[in-house]
Specification:
The chain is mainly alpha-helical and about 160 residues long. The chain has one domain. Helix content is about 50%, strand content about 5%. It is built from seven helices and two strands. It has a two-stranded antiparallel sheet. The longest helix is centred in the N-terminal third of the chain and has 26 residues. It is elongated, with a radius of gyration of 19 Å. The model has no long low-confidence stretch (mean pLDDT about 80). It holds the Pfam family HK97-gp10_like.
């Protein structure tokens, strides 16, 4: 499944020049906001494509996977000093686990089975919903540049 994707971005040079004038902390904050705005396109597309069980099965509520698709900040990028976000299915951990109960197959609020839906198993054919959402990458790139430019310009005028 190889496909060639070509994206041409315009306005990157002026965005780089504007970024150079903003302090580092504000730059990361502005870029993170712009990344989240552009990642919403992928998240919304993945939510639309996510399969939803029509009937309630023991320990599976309809729409659990769909509700768990979210935008999260990348800790790997943060550790490297960069800014990054990714769209994925949020696992049942931390405060959500304390509120909704122990993670695992016996909890109807745990979307642990999203991998089975996305990639398939020996007995279940794959019904991908996250991978096809990457078709929106050209629109995401454009939305990022527009949003980042607006945010950086706002920060530049506010910091002067």
């Amino acid at each position: 499944m190889s496909s060639d994707l070509t994206v041409r971005l315009q306005g990157v040079e002026e965005l780089k020049r504007a970024l150079a004038r903003v302090p580092d902390k504000l730059r990361r904050k502005g870029l993170l906001k712009a990344l989240r705005v552009s990642a919403r396109l992928v998240r919304d597309d993945a939510r639309l494509a996510a399969p939803v069980r029509q009937t309630r099965k023991i320990n599976h509520r309809p729409g659990t996977v769909k509700r768990a698709i979210s935008i999260r900040t990348s800790k790997f990028a943060r550790r490297a000093g960069d800014v990054g976000v990714f769209v994925s299915v949020r696992p049942l951990r931390g405060a959500r686990q304390k509120r909704l109960g122990a993670a695992g197959a016996n909890n109807p609020n745990d979307p642990y089975y999203w991998r089975f839906l996305e990639f398939g198993t020996r007995k279940l054919t794959a019904r991908p919903f996250l991978r096809p959402a990457s078709r929106k990458l050209p629109q995401v790139a454009e939305a990022f540049i527009v949003s980042a430019t607006a945010e950086i310009n706002r920060l530049n005028t506010g910091s002067e």
